[in-house]
Write a structure and sequence with these properties.
FAD/NAD(P)-binding domain; 2 domains; alpha/beta
């Protein structure tokens, strides 16, 4: 959306098409937890009014892209129809990292990244159920909170020895864990998921954990234990949503992000990438995606300028969280 708006500011006549299979309007993913909790409606999460597309003459295409043909400058959709382009910005974002544990795939497994994820979890999560949330980041703690608020019994499983090590030290994380436990969440630190149990009908029965005991009192307990559960939420990060580019010939980095230069140009002519799906250079010289709201915003603006022919280079702004 930042790129589309920036393009329109500079070019009043360009034909600008926005493709999405998720929702007719741009919404804020960090607000999905409040939609689940009933504190906001989905429309409340939309930063722009619903007249924006008409007012700025954006064309909306609802559909899922199946493949990109850079030579033919077209996108093919999963229903078979195609849309051509002169210049293309790939802002396909990320999706939840799939649960890697034996028997995880199936009924009762959920993620919490997209609107579809929210809808699925909202349908199934009912008061009194037992839920296991795996992943010690922001999404994990948000899901633990909203499931607890709905009346589920929640076990929060974190592989690291403390919560959110990317941003907190062990003392700060201990304060968080103490607070979460005081609300009734069973926080398990320093443990891994070894596997998922299912009943003969395929329904979840439990999650097998291995690692350090949860408390001093459990020091003599077995290293492998099963936590009963009816619902499992995997929040172990995200991966670039670039599966549709597998046959495109675009250069992708390990794990799927789109390789881009300083102006966010991809390896094919007239193709750019920005946001969670773009592999960019960090301050330490390493290359990986920046999976943050404000960097996506900034990259969209730089990509738009680059698409218009400006000599621009993306530099990450001041780090903050």
């Amino acid at each position: 959306m930042e790129a589309a708006i920036a393009l329109r500011r500079r070019d009043a006549e360009a034909r600008i098409t926005v493709v999405s299979d998720e929702h007719d309007h741009f919404y804020s993913r960090p607000a999905l937890m409040y939609v689940f909790a009933g504190q906001m409606s989905l429309r409340d999460t939309e930063p722009y009014d619903r007249g924006l597309f008409e007012r700025l003459r954006f064309e909306r295409v609802r559909g899922r892209v199946a493949a990109l043909d850079p030579a033919g400058k077209s996108l093919r959709f999963d229903d078979g129809h195609a849309v051509g382009y002169d210049r293309l910005l790939l802002a396909v974002g990320s999706r939840a990292r799939p649960a890697p544990w034996p028997e995880a795939a199936g009924a009762g497994l959920h993620y919490f990244v997209t609107l579809r994820d929210l809808e699925g979890l909202d349908r199934e999560a009912r008061s009194g159920m037992r839920a296991v949330v795996v992943g010690g980041g922001l999404i994990g703690v948000e899901v633990a909170e909203i499931l607890l608020a709905r009346g589920l019994k929640v076990t929060f499983v974190i592989r690291e020895n403390w919560y959110f090590p990317l941003a907190l030290d062990d003392r700060e994380a201990a304060l968080v864990a103490e607070h979460v436990r005081a609300h009734g969440v069973d926080v398990r630190l320093g443990v891994n998921v070894a596997g998922v149990g299912r009943r003969p009908d395929g329904a979840l029965s439990g999650v097998r954990l291995e690692g350090a005991p949860r408390t001093v009192a459990e020091a003599g307990s077995p290293a492998l234990a099963e936590v009963p559960c009816d619902l499992l939420v995997c929040a172990i990060g995200v991966v670039p949503n670039t599966g549709c580019l597998a046959t495109s010939g675009l250069r992708l980095a390990k794990g799927g992000p789109i390789e881009v230069d300083g102006g966010l140009r991809a390896s094919a002519p007239d193709v750019w990438a920005a946001g969670d799906c773009a592999n960019v250079t960090w301050a330490d010289g390493s290359r990986r995606p920046e999976q943050l709201w404000y960097t996506a915003r900034d990259q969209g603006r730089v990509a738009a300028a680059s698409m218009l022919g400006d000599d621009v280079t993306y530099h990450r702004g001041t780090w903050y969280n």
